[in-house]
Design goal:
- About 70% of the residues lie in helices and about 0% in strands.
- It contains 15 helices and no strands.
- It is an all-alpha fold.
- The longest helix is centred in the N-terminal third of the chain and has 30 residues, at about 15-45.
- Pfam families: TPR_8 (PF13181).
- Keywords: Membrane, TPR repeat, Transmembrane, Transmembrane helix.
């Protein structure tokens, strides 16, 4: 009996499903990435904490001001994270606080304002405003490769939403190359592979990336079911 093609769960995968999966990936790893952003303050900018007498008031106030916006972001309250609360909402929210856009406007040059660019970009993307998201994500300067890779991946998502596919793919590839690690790098590589396969119709490049994940990150490959992707493409799907 001739071998029957092995069905995989991505055989009918299309662009809309790619974008749905992008949103799911964001939700799954959101807190991990945001933890890396906060770690920049504790590690890369630790002098804010161990040398109070050396701190500038602007930096101190900025880090206090961004706390509520980041808390709203982690709760998926993206509009509140972005804009904060005005007088109309202050009573309902137990007081007013500044959103990411306020932090950027009021505390320019601080690490909190830099983080706010990432938060604003990610929030705008989740609110369906990809064009605006791109501006803020490009302005973010990741102090560690981990968070910079996350920003690149979100830029890929944003350009995908605007149908600028070449730019989207370039940022997915940047994310995969930035500060390689076993947790997030294979996730970004798979996004690049799927985009090559589904959007760019470049199955050969997609297969290369899937096999690279299997070789370099075997545990992640198992978690992400990369073997199914390899089988699908090797069968000529």
């Amino acid at each position: 009996m001739a071998d029957q093609p092995i069905k995989t769960e991505l055989q009918d995968f299309d662009v809309d499903q790619f974008r749905d999966q992008t949103a799911e990936t964001f939700e799954k790893y959101k807190n991990v990435i945001f933890g890396a952003l906060l770690a920049v303050v504790l590690i890369g900018g630790g002098y804010y904490f161990y040398s109070d007498f050396y701190m500038k008031p602007k930096n101190e106030n900025a880090n206090k001001a961004i706390f509520q916006a980041e808390a709203m972001f982690q709760k998926d309250s993206f509009l509140l994270a972005l804009n904060g609360t005005g007088a109309a909402l202050a009573g309902q929210m137990g007081g007013s606080y500044e959103g990411f856009l306020d932090i950027i406007a009021n505390y320019g040059g601080t690490e909190a304002a830099n983080r706010a660019h990432y938060g604003a970009g990610a929030s705008l993307l989740r609110l369906g405003k990809a064009d605006e998201a791109i501006k803020y994500l490009k302005a973010y300067n990741g102090k560690d490769g981990y968070s910079q890779a996350a920003a690149y991946a979100l830029l890929g998502d944003a350009y995908s939403e605007t149908n600028d596919n070449e730019q989207a793919l370039s940022y997915y590839e940047k994310a995969a190359k930035e500060s390689p690690n076993a947790m997030m790098t294979p996730v970004y590589m798979r996004k690049a592979a799927l985009f090559n396969e589904v959007v760019m119709s470049n199955s050969a490049r997609a297969l290369e990336l899937y096999k690279e994940i299997e070789q370099k990150y075997p545990e992640a490959a198992e978690r992400l079911n990369i073997s199914k992707d390899v089988v699908r493409l090797e069968q000529g799907k």
